[in-house]
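#structure-requests
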Amino acid sequence: MKQAIRIGDYLVGADAAPFIIAELSGNHSQDYALAEKMVDAAADAGAHAVKLQTYTADSMTLDVDSADFVIGESDSLWAGEKLHSLYQKAATPYEWHKALFERAGARGMVAFSSPFDTHAVDFLDDLDVPCFKIASFELTDLPLVAHAAKKGKPLIMSTGMASLREIEEAVQCARNNGCSDIILLKCTSTYPAEPNNTNLATIPNMRAAFDCQVGLSDHSGGIGVAVASVALGASVIEKHFVLDRNAGGVDAAFSLEPSELTSLVTETRRAWQAMGEVRYGGSQAEATAKQYRRSIYVSENVRAGEELSESNLKIVRPAFGLAPRHWQEVIGKVASKDLSKGTALRWEHLSS
Protein backbone atom coordinates (compact mmCIF):
# COMPACT_ATOMS: atom_id res chain seq x y z
CA MET A 1 0.00 0.00 0.00
CA LYS A 2 1.23 3.49 -0.79
CA GLN A 3 2.38 4.85 2.56
CA ALA A 4 1.50 8.49 2.00
CA ILE A 5 -0.60 10.62 -0.33
CA ARG A 6 0.23 14.27 -0.85
CA ILE A 7 -2.64 16.74 -0.61
CA GLY A 8 -1.29 20.23 -1.08
CA ASP A 9 1.54 20.68 1.40
CA TYR A 10 0.37 17.80 3.59
CA LEU A 11 1.21 14.11 3.56
CA VAL A 12 -1.61 11.74 4.48
CA GLY A 13 -0.65 8.35 5.83
CA ALA A 14 0.42 6.30 8.82
CA ASP A 15 3.63 8.28 9.30
CA ALA A 16 1.83 11.62 9.60
CA ALA A 17 -0.58 13.00 12.18
CA PRO A 18 -4.24 12.67 11.15
CA PHE A 19 -5.28 15.09 8.42
CA ILE A 20 -8.17 17.13 9.85
CA ILE A 21 -10.82 18.49 7.47
CA ALA A 22 -13.32 21.11 8.60
CA GLU A 23 -16.45 20.69 6.47
CA LEU A 24 -18.25 24.03 6.11
CA SER A 25 -21.24 22.47 4.29
CA GLY A 26 -24.21 24.86 4.41
CA ASN A 27 -23.54 26.13 7.93
CA HIS A 28 -22.57 29.51 6.45
CA SER A 29 -26.31 30.06 5.84
CA GLN A 30 -25.32 31.75 2.56
CA ASP A 31 -23.73 34.63 4.44
CA TYR A 32 -20.32 35.23 2.85
CA ALA A 33 -18.95 37.17 5.82
CA LEU A 34 -19.86 34.22 8.04
CA ALA A 35 -18.15 31.83 5.63
CA GLU A 36 -14.95 33.90 5.87
CA LYS A 37 -15.13 33.81 9.67
CA MET A 38 -15.55 30.03 9.53
CA VAL A 39 -12.42 29.66 7.41
CA ASP A 40 -10.45 31.83 9.82
CA ALA A 41 -11.78 29.97 12.86
CA ALA A 42 -10.89 26.61 11.31
CA ALA A 43 -7.34 27.86 10.73
CA ASP A 44 -7.11 29.18 14.29
CA ALA A 45 -8.25 25.76 15.55
CA GLY A 46 -5.42 24.04 13.69
CA ALA A 47 -7.41 22.29 10.94
CA HIS A 48 -5.35 21.23 7.96
CA ALA A 49 -8.12 21.71 5.41
CA VAL A 50 -11.50 23.27 4.81
CA LYS A 51 -13.99 21.68 2.48
CA LEU A 52 -16.96 23.11 0.63
CA GLN A 53 -19.77 21.44 -1.29
CA THR A 54 -20.17 22.42 -4.93
CA TYR A 55 -23.68 22.08 -6.31
CA THR A 56 -26.84 23.93 -7.14
CA ALA A 57 -30.32 22.80 -6.22
CA ASP A 58 -30.92 21.96 -9.88
CA SER A 59 -27.77 19.84 -10.12
CA MET A 60 -28.86 17.87 -7.06
CA THR A 61 -32.53 17.16 -7.70
CA LEU A 62 -35.70 18.10 -9.55
CA ASP A 63 -37.99 20.92 -8.54
CA VAL A 64 -41.21 18.90 -8.33
CA ASP A 65 -43.80 18.48 -5.62
CA SER A 66 -44.27 14.70 -5.49
CA ALA A 67 -43.61 12.74 -2.31
CA ASP A 68 -40.44 11.28 -3.82
CA PHE A 69 -38.81 14.69 -3.45
CA VAL A 70 -39.78 15.39 0.19
CA ILE A 71 -37.82 14.08 3.19
CA GLY A 72 -40.22 11.71 4.88
CA GLU A 73 -38.19 10.29 7.78
CA SER A 74 -39.74 11.63 10.97
CA ASP A 75 -36.44 11.44 12.88
CA SER A 76 -34.50 13.43 10.26
CA LEU A 77 -33.24 16.92 11.06
CA TRP A 78 -34.91 17.98 7.82
CA ALA A 79 -38.19 16.04 8.06
CA GLY A 80 -40.84 17.42 5.73
CA GLU A 81 -38.38 19.56 3.76
CA LYS A 82 -38.62 19.56 0.00
CA LEU A 83 -35.27 18.43 -1.40
CA HIS A 84 -34.98 21.26 -3.90
CA SER A 85 -35.62 23.98 -1.34
CA LEU A 86 -33.26 22.36 1.20
CA TYR A 87 -30.40 22.28 -1.31
CA GLN A 88 -31.24 25.77 -2.45
CA LYS A 89 -30.68 27.22 1.00
CA ALA A 90 -27.66 25.01 1.81
CA ALA A 91 -25.69 25.52 -1.41
CA THR A 92 -22.41 27.39 -1.42
CA PRO A 93 -22.52 29.92 -4.27
CA TYR A 94 -20.04 29.13 -7.02
CA GLU A 95 -18.77 32.70 -6.98
CA TRP A 96 -17.56 32.27 -3.38
CA HIS A 97 -15.24 29.36 -4.06
CA LYS A 98 -12.17 31.12 -5.40
CA ALA A 99 -12.06 33.72 -2.64
CA LEU A 100 -12.66 31.18 0.13
CA PHE A 101 -10.01 28.85 -1.29
CA GLU A 102 -7.53 31.73 -1.43
CA ARG A 103 -8.36 32.77 2.11
CA ALA A 104 -7.80 29.22 3.35
CA GLY A 105 -4.50 29.01 1.49
CA ALA A 106 -3.34 32.29 3.00
CA ARG A 107 -4.00 30.76 6.43
CA GLY A 108 -1.92 27.68 5.67
CA MET A 109 -4.79 25.31 4.96
CA VAL A 110 -5.67 23.15 2.00
CA ALA A 111 -9.05 23.93 0.44
CA PHE A 112 -11.15 21.68 -1.78
CA SER A 113 -14.73 20.59 -2.27
CA SER A 114 -17.22 17.83 -2.98
CA PRO A 115 -18.48 18.10 -6.58
CA PHE A 116 -21.95 16.69 -7.15
CA ASP A 117 -21.93 16.64 -10.95
CA THR A 118 -19.37 16.64 -13.75
CA HIS A 119 -19.73 20.39 -14.32
CA ALA A 120 -18.74 20.95 -10.68
CA VAL A 121 -15.68 18.72 -11.18
CA ASP A 122 -14.57 20.85 -14.12
CA PHE A 123 -15.25 24.07 -12.21
CA LEU A 124 -13.14 22.91 -9.26
CA ASP A 125 -10.38 21.62 -11.50
CA ASP A 126 -10.15 25.07 -13.09
CA LEU A 127 -9.59 26.41 -9.55
CA ASP A 128 -6.70 23.96 -9.19
CA VAL A 129 -8.02 22.11 -6.15
CA PRO A 130 -5.50 19.56 -4.80
CA CYS A 131 -8.06 16.73 -4.61
CA PHE A 132 -11.74 15.89 -4.94
CA LYS A 133 -14.11 14.52 -2.31
CA ILE A 134 -16.89 12.19 -3.42
CA ALA A 135 -19.77 12.33 -0.95
CA SER A 136 -21.20 9.07 0.38
CA PHE A 137 -24.52 9.44 -1.44
CA GLU A 138 -22.62 9.94 -4.71
CA LEU A 139 -20.33 6.92 -4.33
CA THR A 140 -22.52 4.89 -6.66
CA ASP A 141 -22.51 7.65 -9.31
CA LEU A 142 -19.76 5.96 -11.29
CA PRO A 143 -19.82 8.49 -14.16
CA LEU A 144 -19.06 11.21 -11.57
CA VAL A 145 -16.29 9.11 -9.99
CA ALA A 146 -14.78 8.43 -13.41
CA HIS A 147 -14.86 12.08 -14.44
CA ALA A 148 -13.13 13.18 -11.22
CA ALA A 149 -10.58 10.35 -11.44
CA LYS A 150 -9.52 11.46 -14.92
CA LYS A 151 -8.29 14.79 -13.53
CA GLY A 152 -5.21 13.04 -12.09
CA LYS A 153 -5.73 14.19 -8.52
CA PRO A 154 -6.29 12.23 -5.28
CA LEU A 155 -9.86 11.12 -4.58
CA ILE A 156 -11.31 11.06 -1.08
CA MET A 157 -14.48 8.96 -1.12
CA SER A 158 -16.97 8.55 1.73
CA THR A 159 -18.50 5.09 1.87
CA GLY A 160 -21.65 5.74 3.89
CA MET A 161 -24.18 2.95 3.47
CA ALA A 162 -22.33 1.45 0.49
CA SER A 163 -21.96 -2.32 0.34
CA LEU A 164 -18.58 -3.97 -0.08
CA ARG A 165 -19.39 -4.51 -3.75
CA GLU A 166 -20.40 -0.87 -4.27
CA ILE A 167 -17.16 0.34 -2.68
CA GLU A 168 -15.21 -2.09 -4.85
CA GLU A 169 -16.96 -0.75 -7.96
CA ALA A 170 -16.14 2.86 -7.04
CA VAL A 171 -12.49 2.08 -6.25
CA GLN A 172 -12.06 0.07 -9.43
CA CYS A 173 -13.75 2.81 -11.45
CA ALA A 174 -11.34 5.39 -10.02
CA ARG A 175 -8.32 3.20 -10.72
CA ASN A 176 -9.48 2.35 -14.22
CA ASN A 177 -9.72 6.05 -14.96
CA GLY A 178 -6.23 6.92 -13.83
CA CYS A 179 -6.53 7.64 -10.10
CA SER A 180 -4.16 5.66 -7.87
CA ASP A 181 -4.28 8.00 -4.85
CA ILE A 182 -7.50 6.97 -3.12
CA ILE A 183 -8.59 7.61 0.47
CA LEU A 184 -11.75 5.89 1.68
CA LEU A 185 -13.65 7.38 4.61
CA LYS A 186 -15.73 5.18 6.88
CA CYS A 187 -18.98 7.07 7.23
CA THR A 188 -22.37 6.57 8.84
CA SER A 189 -25.03 8.29 6.76
CA THR A 190 -27.30 9.37 9.58
CA TYR A 191 -27.41 12.96 10.76
CA PRO A 192 -26.47 12.97 13.57
CA ALA A 193 -24.86 9.53 13.82
CA GLU A 194 -24.83 7.53 17.04
CA PRO A 195 -21.58 5.94 18.25
CA ASN A 196 -23.19 2.49 18.37
CA ASN A 197 -23.88 2.76 14.62
CA THR A 198 -20.39 3.88 13.69
CA ASN A 199 -18.63 0.47 13.52
CA LEU A 200 -15.06 1.72 13.58
CA ALA A 201 -13.81 -1.86 13.39
CA THR A 202 -14.49 -1.57 9.66
CA ILE A 203 -11.51 0.78 9.21
CA PRO A 204 -8.66 -1.78 9.30
CA ASN A 205 -10.78 -4.24 7.32
CA MET A 206 -11.43 -1.61 4.64
CA ARG A 207 -7.73 -0.77 4.41
CA ALA A 208 -6.84 -4.43 3.92
CA ALA A 209 -9.66 -5.04 1.44
CA PHE A 210 -8.90 -2.08 -0.84
CA ASP A 211 -5.19 -1.48 -0.21
CA CYS A 212 -5.57 2.25 0.33
CA GLN A 213 -5.55 4.91 3.02
CA VAL A 214 -8.67 4.96 5.20
CA GLY A 215 -10.15 7.65 7.42
CA LEU A 216 -13.43 8.73 9.00
CA SER A 217 -16.16 11.13 7.99
CA ASP A 218 -17.82 11.56 11.36
CA HIS A 219 -21.35 12.83 11.95
CA SER A 220 -21.50 11.90 15.65
CA GLY A 221 -21.42 14.42 18.46
CA GLY A 222 -18.15 15.38 20.14
CA ILE A 223 -14.70 14.05 19.29
CA GLY A 224 -14.60 10.67 21.05
CA VAL A 225 -15.45 8.60 17.97
CA ALA A 226 -12.89 10.43 15.85
CA VAL A 227 -10.11 10.00 18.42
CA ALA A 228 -10.90 6.30 18.73
CA SER A 229 -10.70 5.90 14.95
CA VAL A 230 -7.06 6.98 14.98
CA ALA A 231 -6.19 3.96 17.11
CA LEU A 232 -7.63 1.80 14.32
CA GLY A 233 -5.57 3.53 11.66
CA ALA A 234 -7.66 6.47 10.44
CA SER A 235 -5.33 8.90 8.66
CA VAL A 236 -8.03 11.46 7.76
CA ILE A 237 -10.81 12.88 9.93
CA GLU A 238 -13.61 14.96 8.45
CA LYS A 239 -16.02 16.79 10.75
CA HIS A 240 -18.71 19.35 10.01
CA PHE A 241 -17.90 22.76 11.44
CA VAL A 242 -19.96 25.68 12.75
CA LEU A 243 -19.10 28.82 14.71
CA ASP A 244 -22.04 28.48 17.08
CA ARG A 245 -24.46 25.54 17.13
CA ASN A 246 -27.10 27.65 18.84
CA ALA A 247 -27.06 30.15 15.98
CA GLY A 248 -28.25 27.49 13.56
CA GLY A 249 -27.05 26.19 10.22
CA VAL A 250 -28.38 23.24 8.23
CA ASP A 251 -25.86 20.84 9.79
CA ALA A 252 -25.29 22.65 13.08
CA ALA A 253 -26.69 19.86 15.26
CA PHE A 254 -23.80 17.49 14.46
CA SER A 255 -21.08 20.08 13.80
CA LEU A 256 -18.10 21.00 15.97
CA GLU A 257 -17.63 24.50 17.35
CA PRO A 258 -14.14 26.10 17.22
CA SER A 259 -13.01 24.99 20.68
CA GLU A 260 -14.09 21.44 19.89
CA LEU A 261 -12.24 21.50 16.58
CA THR A 262 -9.12 22.60 18.45
CA SER A 263 -9.55 19.63 20.78
CA LEU A 264 -10.05 17.32 17.81
CA VAL A 265 -6.75 18.42 16.26
CA THR A 266 -4.91 18.07 19.59
CA GLU A 267 -6.38 14.78 20.72
CA THR A 268 -6.19 12.96 17.39
CA ARG A 269 -2.51 13.93 17.18
CA ARG A 270 -1.99 12.59 20.71
CA ALA A 271 -3.76 9.36 19.80
CA TRP A 272 -1.55 8.99 16.72
CA GLN A 273 1.60 9.69 18.73
CA ALA A 274 0.53 7.18 21.36
CA MET A 275 0.23 4.29 18.91
CA GLY A 276 3.99 3.82 18.64
CA GLU A 277 5.20 0.25 18.27
CA VAL A 278 5.01 -3.08 20.10
CA ARG A 279 7.34 -2.65 23.06
CA TYR A 280 7.90 -4.34 26.42
CA GLY A 281 10.30 -3.39 29.20
CA GLY A 282 9.69 0.33 29.21
CA SER A 283 10.82 3.11 26.92
CA GLN A 284 13.96 5.20 27.18
CA ALA A 285 11.84 7.94 28.74
CA GLU A 286 10.93 5.56 31.57
CA ALA A 287 14.50 4.53 32.36
CA THR A 288 14.93 6.81 35.36
CA ALA A 289 11.56 5.75 36.77
CA LYS A 290 12.84 2.19 37.34
CA GLN A 291 14.67 3.39 40.46
CA TYR A 292 11.29 3.80 42.14
CA ARG A 293 10.48 0.12 41.96
CA ARG A 294 10.95 -1.95 45.14
CA SER A 295 14.08 -3.73 46.34
CA ILE A 296 15.47 -5.31 49.54
CA TYR A 297 16.73 -2.89 52.17
CA VAL A 298 18.08 -3.26 55.69
CA SER A 299 15.25 -2.06 57.93
CA GLU A 300 17.09 -2.30 61.29
CA ASN A 301 20.79 -2.08 62.17
CA VAL A 302 22.52 -5.46 61.69
CA ARG A 303 25.83 -6.64 63.20
CA ALA A 304 28.36 -8.71 61.26
CA GLY A 305 27.48 -12.40 61.70
CA GLU A 306 23.83 -11.67 62.53
CA GLU A 307 21.15 -13.62 60.67
CA LEU A 308 19.12 -11.73 58.11
CA SER A 309 15.37 -12.07 58.60
CA GLU A 310 12.01 -10.40 58.16
CA SER A 311 12.74 -8.43 61.32
CA ASN A 312 15.71 -6.60 59.84
CA LEU A 313 15.03 -6.69 56.10
CA LYS A 314 12.16 -5.16 54.16
CA ILE A 315 11.05 -4.85 50.55
CA VAL A 316 10.57 -1.12 49.93
CA ARG A 317 11.10 1.58 47.36
CA PRO A 318 13.56 2.57 45.79
CA ALA A 319 15.20 -0.13 43.68
CA PHE A 320 18.93 0.18 44.46
CA GLY A 321 19.06 -3.07 46.41
CA LEU A 322 18.56 -6.69 45.41
CA ALA A 323 15.35 -7.32 43.48
CA PRO A 324 12.38 -8.70 45.46
CA ARG A 325 12.63 -12.01 43.56
CA HIS A 326 15.75 -12.79 45.67
CA TRP A 327 13.87 -12.48 48.98
CA GLN A 328 13.82 -16.20 49.80
CA GLU A 329 17.50 -16.50 48.87
CA VAL A 330 18.64 -13.89 51.41
CA ILE A 331 16.35 -14.75 54.33
CA GLY A 332 18.38 -16.85 56.77
CA LYS A 333 21.75 -15.76 55.42
CA VAL A 334 24.33 -14.11 57.68
CA ALA A 335 25.57 -10.53 57.34
CA SER A 336 29.20 -10.28 56.23
CA LYS A 337 29.64 -6.88 57.89
CA ASP A 338 27.82 -4.33 59.99
CA LEU A 339 24.84 -2.95 58.03
CA SER A 340 23.02 0.20 59.05
CA LYS A 341 19.32 0.80 58.62
CA GLY A 342 18.62 2.08 55.09
CA THR A 343 21.39 0.08 53.41
CA ALA A 344 20.48 -1.24 49.97
CA LEU A 345 21.19 -4.96 50.33
CA ARG A 346 23.76 -6.43 47.91
CA TRP A 347 25.26 -9.89 47.47
CA GLU A 348 28.56 -8.79 49.06
CA HIS A 349 26.66 -8.10 52.27
CA LEU A 350 26.06 -11.85 52.68
CA SER A 351 28.57 -14.31 54.06
CA SER A 352 29.38 -17.11 51.64
